[in-house]
Amino acid sequence: MEEERIRFFRMLIDTPSPSGFEEQVQQLFLERVKDAVDLTYKDVHGNAFGVINPDCEHKLMLAGHCDEVGLMVSYIDKEGYVYFSTVGGIDPQITQGMPVVIHTAKGPVSGVIGKKPIHLLEEKERQKVARIEEQWIDIGAKDGEEARSMVQIGDPITFDIASRCLAGERITGKGIDDKVGVFVVCEVLRELGREKQSLAFGVYGVSTVQEELGLRGAKTSAFGINPKIGIAIDVTFASDCPNIDKKKVGDISLGKGPVLARGPNINSKLWMRMKNVAEENNIPYQVQAEARATGTDANVIQTTRSGVVTALLSIPNRYMHTPSEIVDMQDVENAIRLLVLFIKSLKAEEDWIP
Fold this sequence. Notes:
This protein is an alpha+beta fold. The protein has ten helices and 17 strands. The protein is globular, with a radius of gyration of 21 Å.
């Protein structure tokens, strides 16, 4: 993948965006696509839109959610220690000892999540995982008064971990779930913008908000767009690492292509069409069985209004919801290529009824 694209992707995942506090990433999204699209805007929930051919009768929606899991200040004690709650699903085993940033109205405040030294732990304590409400952040304040002058109740918190390049084309960082989806939406819009006159659909690229709290942004933005076709771009569990049961999540590997979900959340004709486009153009892909409604934006897009022709395209991701997720940029590049070719192949009047 081009170095400039890599830089932008890393900027996305390094930019804080816990659910409900996505403004900085949304600005990056709008700046990235503005020269390629005909229209950009945001709605009252904070969803950001880039639109190609907004006057077209037939509409296609691409959705990647920009929010990441994080923490939030819930209490400050008299000694100046900051207690927190989770924003989205975070495993309490990974938090202790982590550096964090509290995002305040006055600017970022650095801190660390405290941990009793192993030398002082009793045997019972060594076997126990501290609950989130038992953990605290040390910002270096001398007492509660000083701490409260620095941070406020409700301030969002993110892990202070920068993205890094690994071997090959693999990248690790926080918030890859699902800013990699936002990245794909950006790059598809930028490529389609060069030949928008030939497209049979208006393309609505959406960086959705608050997916981690119940698919909220996709629900409202899909209702507003009322698309004929909706494709969610998200991450899925890579099973090519220790202790992942392939019998439960499927055989999904980094570097073997994006993943086409198959199941009741997915329109069968749309799934077959995307599969055929991949095969006709020698694009590697993987298939994942989703026997129920997926926990992605595709879930609510499908049931919007009278129903939407829906698909889910996923990027294999290791160590989801940790500060050290890993994706392979070859999978990302192939996802972009597949979506561009699929959208260009669409005709205005096609029968998508199963």
